[in-house]
Write the structure tokens for this entry.
Amino acid sequence: MKHLFLVRHAKSSWADDTLTDRQRPLNGRGESQLAPLGRALVRSGAFGGTIHASDAARAQQTLAGVLPEGFPNNRVYIHPELYTLDYRRLLHWLRTLDTDEETVTIIGHNPALLELAEHLLKHPPAKLPTAGFVHVQLPDKPWHKVGPGKGRLEAFLTPREFSYQQFARKQKKRARTTGDEPGQDIPEALTHQLQRMRELEAGVKVGLDDEFLHQFRIAIRRSRAIAESVEEVTGDKSLKQSIKQLKSQAQATSPLRDLHVFLQDLPALCEHNSELQTALSTWAETETDQEHRALVKRLESKRYRDATHRWEDQIHSRQFRKLAGRLTPKDIRKAVENRIREFNRRTAELLHNSPDDDIHRLRKLLKRIRYLMELDAKGWKRPLKTLKYRQELYGRFQDLHVQVELIRAFRARAPETLPGAVDGLKERLEQQKADARRQILALGGLDGAPV
């Protein structure tokens, strides 16, 4: 089979009207698109053959920004004829390629690239944004025999799917609720988080930017915290099944998120021991691929879709709005105060030798307190600021706990691999975890006073 990658250049600038169209450079946003685009192209196999780019400045900058380090110069070509808006010229050029070329990547311009995809595919994408690309698989025939509708769409990726930074440009992480009208604020907050979950799903499935999964987990946890609070304050049990589903969804993402954090921290953890870093990263990347496939399978399952639709129906129902409408700002404050009392009680019971799970439970309770406070952010300004440091410290403790467990898992899988270096790393992490525990014990309880 032959593989054709059609890559549209990154976002260009129109700031200087003295430049010709061919001379226009990338703008700041375009430059920020290059690194994630390069990673996406590497993962998709776009650099397995030859790279061909238009001679326009914006295409040249895109080419320079996405090429992997050390990519052979003799596999990179610049063609003035690829600076075109006419797909028929691209098609004519494509048909002149050597028969031996199996993977070809073109960095060029719209509408020519999109229209070429429309010519080759029976079901092409509707649009091709800047820094997006289409991967087309073609029959294993000479390029001069490329015909209409003979291609198969292997992948179509846009910056919103492989870069959280690009996705988040105009996104709000949470609804702007005042806390004055819970009957309106709570359904609005839950609807917003559900919408975020759905929009983040594509990036989670693509798996090229870990931040998609992190934000997906936050959206689930915010939703669960609000739903639990409504149930707690009203005593109504109609949300019990939905809360259970949200908890299950969050738990399903935990192993993958733990591996993401571990891989991000490995360079610092291994302290320039490249052999140790290579061994651990190879193992962790294999585990990550397995966990990612399992999560994608779950997100594409009928069971997950049905649960999501039920949750949507529930938060949009008249019954739920009526239930939420029974709450007042005073009720939300009371729920926060109850959670703070529970947090302080559990904190007072914490000892230097308490199980790690006790601190983990406190960390989760801390997050739920914060999400509740955010329903009435203006009423909890000071506590919200102090919670940030606590969350970072408890999160650091949990990360260290997970990293120790992952090191143990690696040791069980490969007992003969660098035993001294692995044991030394484990001891260092356990010492850091003990230090974090002492800091947590020194903090004591939370101040439950609002504002």
About this structure: The beta strands are 2-8, 50-54, 76-79, 103-108, 133-138, 152-157. The mean pLDDT is 93.
